[in-house]
Design a protein that fits this description.
The complex is a heterodimer of chains A (262) and B (333). By secondary structure, chain A is mainly alpha-helical. Chain A has helices spanning 2-19, 22-49, 58-78, 80-91, 95-99, 105-111, 119-135, 142-172, 180-184, 199-208, 216-219, 229-255. Chain A has one domain (25-47, 55-255). Chain A has twelve helices and no strands. The relative contact order of chain A is 0.13. The model of chain A has no long low-confidence stretch (mean pLDDT 91). In chain B, 34% of the residues lie in helices and 28% in strands. In chain B, β11 and β12 (284-290) form a beta hairpin. The model of chain B has no long low-confidence stretch (mean pLDDT 87). In chain B, α5 (130-144) runs antiparallel to α6 and α6 packs parallel to α7. In chain B, the strands form three sheets. Chain B has a six-stranded mixed beta sheet, with helices on both faces. In chain B, strands 11-12-10-13 form a four-stranded antiparallel beta sheet, with helices on one face. Chain B has a three-stranded antiparallel beta sheet with strand order 2-1-4. Chain B folds into two domains: 4-245, 3-Layer(aba) Sandwich (Rossmann fold); 251-316, Alpha-Beta Plaits (2-Layer Sandwich). Chain B is of the alpha/beta class and 333 residues long. The chains are: A mainly alpha (262), B alpha/beta (333). At the A-B interface, α1 and α5 of A face α1, α3, β5 and α4 of B.
Chain lengths: 262, 333
């Protein structure tokens, strides 16, 4: 409860600071939205030429994409500090202050700054989900309605865990190795049915960097693709395992934090 | 049982030599030659509740590293720290509620938002009640004059103003102990005095135990009865400042600038034979003396009365000189 109220406080403070430059925020939202629209455009053009992708219809792919975008949107809102962590917190030594407060360091890093414009992605994702669901005449059961938000949470946790682990590298290596952008660019691979990939990519996306568990697999139950059911039920487990791993690696990193000279 | 107990505390940093250039950068990733750097080397001390202790040393002596271990930021390589029953780095979550920390070089306030909003965030994080918050803010305002600053974003504050706000922020949750790392660094005389006055009150009226690092000896003289000197990671001295003065010949110097070029004959001044004299050039000369034998006022009086003096500068012993003196004597005891 205390954490939730602090989180709200952090968010409103940050929003206030961002709103001081309204024009800047507006442009950021617009840019972010254009990028989202462009990626939908890609799907649209693709399906202009082919009517289905290995038995998957356009609307089904929109559904998967919408789900992925919703999770990714939440992730993008929270991950702002992860990208700048090495520079802002480790090299500049700002992490000292984080460690002096009676809150878990990861909580502070995730919730001290927000990429507010990415809330647009959450919204667009939900709209896409609604549109695709309506077109596909999906009739979700009561259980599915309850499972949906759980799946979104799992997706966000999986995205966050992967990038928390990658960010933790900065605790040991001050040099910017630039491992985050290439991995980030792999996220779109998770948005397609894994069966369109070769075995190597399937394995990579499921078990090494489990993006498929944050976008494709969680949608299969709602889309009535029974053949993927075992994967669907593994989603919470994958989220729990990657979340635990991320926390362990992070805590390990905090222990080897060397701070800076004064 | 003391409030702060430190036993055989050491911190070794692993550093490596960075190679230059693009190729060097690539090599850095794969082949690294690590060197051990002993920042703090087996120090032990204890501090009782209510004390105000000055922790001094030259740059790079290990002061900040000690403070960072005491505050739980760094994990010690070996040795034990216990503060108020907590092991700082392990019990971080509950421990940090009981301490306040100020780094002179860095602010703990949020850069972009108004000071008062930072305070409110801290109030929330530390679970401070509205009543306590108001009361404490009122108390701090009396000495630090905060009211005018509260609605300014931190980035627009001067260094002195920022330090006042940081001091208040570190005490909002009513900590038992206040750690300060170079609280007066870069401040002008008035701001320094402000900070010192506040710290004295915090220690005497709020009964907060204070440990501060500085390399400004006048901070120590005005604030602390007890000092600890650290050099190259080792504790050189732990005791009363007066005691240190007693035991070491603390040389002060007076620099004179003459009104017109000329040669000064020291013998004609009738000075105590312990005073060392040097003519630096035709305009300037220097007296080196021991305050315990010759009070500086006396020396200056004689000099000003018998020589055509334009300017007098009195320079006290610096930390570096004290440390050098300790070494040249091969220790204190």
């Amino acid at each position: 409860m205390r954490h939730l109220s602090i989180l709200i406080h952090y968010f409103s403070q940050y929003l206030k600071a961002r709103l001081e430059y309204k024009g800047d925020l507006l442009i950021a939202v617009f840019t972010s939205f254009s990028a989202t629209v462009a990626s939908f455009g890609f799907l649209y053009i693709l399906f202009h030429r082919v009517s289905s992708l290995q038995g998957w219809k356009f609307e089904e792919l929109i559904f998967i994409y919408g789900f992925s975008l919703t999770c990714l949107g939440f992730f993008n809102v929270l991950s702002l500090n992860l990208y700048e962590f090495g520079e802002r917190y480790i090299m500049e030594g700002r992490f000292d202050q984080v460690l002096l407060r009676p809150l878990h360091s990861l909580f502070q890093i995730l919730f001290e700054a927000f990429r507010i414009e990415s809330l647009q992605e959450v919204l667009t994702g939900l709209v896409a989900l609604g549109y695709a669901g309506w077109k596909l005449r999906l009739q979700p059961t009561v259980i599915e309605v309850f499972l949906f938000p759980l799946m979104v949470v799992c997706g966000v946790v999986i995205y966050l865990s992967i990038f928390i682990i990658l960010t933790s590298v900065s605790f040991w290596f001050e040099d910017r190795i630039g491992i985050i952008p290439p991995v980030y660019n792999m996220i779109p691979f998770g948005r397609y049915p894994t069966t369109i990939y070769n075995v190597f990519l399937q394995f990579l996306l499921s078990w090494i960097i489990p993006f498929a568990f944050a976008s494709f697999y969680p949608t299969t139950l709602f889309l009535d693709r029974r053949e993927f059911q075992p994967y669907f039920y593994l989603v919470p487990l994958v989220a729990a395992v990657s979340g635990t791993m991320a926390l362990l690696v992070w805590n390990r990193g905090v222990k080897s934090y060397q701070s800076t000279g004064n | 049982m003391s409030l702060i107990e430190v036993r055989n505390l050491s911190k070794i940093f692993k550093t490596f030599d960075r190679k230059e250039g693009v190729w060097g950068g690539i090599q850095n990733l794969f082949v690294r030659q690590y060197r051990d750097l002993k920042a703090v080397d087996a120090i032990s001390f204890s501090i009782d509740q209510g004390e105000m202790v000055g922790y001094i040393g030259a740059n790079g002596a290990g002061k900040s590293t000690t403070i960072k271990m005491l505050t739980g930021i760094l994990v010690p390589t070996s040795g034990a720290i216990k503060v108020g029953g907590y092991i700082p780095f392990r019990d971080r979550n509950s421990y940090t509620r009981t301490i306040g920390v100020v780094f002179g070089q860095r602010t703990q306030l949020w850069w972009d938002i108004a000071v008062v909003e930072s305070f409110q965030l801290l109030k929330k994080i530390y679970n401070v009640s509205d009543k306590d918050y108001q009361e404490r803010l009122e108390t701090f305002d009396q000495v630090l004059n905060l009211k005018r600053l509260l609605h300014t974003p931190v980035r627009k504050l001067s260094l002195g103003q920022r330090m006042r706000c940081d001091l208040a922020a570190s005490l909002l949750h009513n900590p038992m102990i206040l750690f300060l790392d170079e609280p007066t660094i870069g401040l002008d005389v008035v701001a320094k005095e402000n900070v010192r006055q506040f710290l004295r009150r915090v220690n005497q009226e709020l009964k907060v135990t204070v440990l501060l690092t500085t390399h400004d000896l006048s901070d120590i003289e005005e604030l602390c009865r007890r000092i600890m000197i650290i050099d190259k990671g080792r504790l050189l001295f732990d005791g009363a400042l007066a005691e240190l003065r007693e035991r070491l010949a603390c040389k002060s110097q007076v620099l004179l600038e003459l009104k017109e070029p000329g040669k000064v004959n020291p013998a004609a001044l009738g000075l105590n034979s312990d005073i060392e004299f040097k003519q630096l050039d035709e305009m300037r000369c220097q007296f080196i003396f021991d305050k315990r034998i010759v009070p500086s006022a006396e020396l200056i009086k004689i000099v000003v009365n018998s020589l055509p003096v334009r300017d007098v500068v009195l320079e006290d012993t610096t930390i570096e000189e004290i440390v050098r003196e300790i070494y040249s004597r091969g220790g204190i005891e």
